[in-house]
Amino acid sequence: MKILTTVRRVPDLDARFSLNGDKTEIDTEALDHKVNYFDEVAVEEAIRLKEKGVADEIVSVCIGSGNATKELRTALAMGADRAILVEADEKTLDPYLVAAILAKLVEKEQPDLIIMGKLGVDFENTQVPQLLAGMLGWPQATFAYSTEICDSKVTVGREVDGGTSTFRLPLPAIVTADLRLNEPRFPSLPGIMKAKRKPLDTMTIEDLGVALEPRVKTVRFEMPPEREAGVIVADVAELIQKLRDEVKAI
Question: What's the total number of domains in the chain?
Answer without folding.
Answer: 1
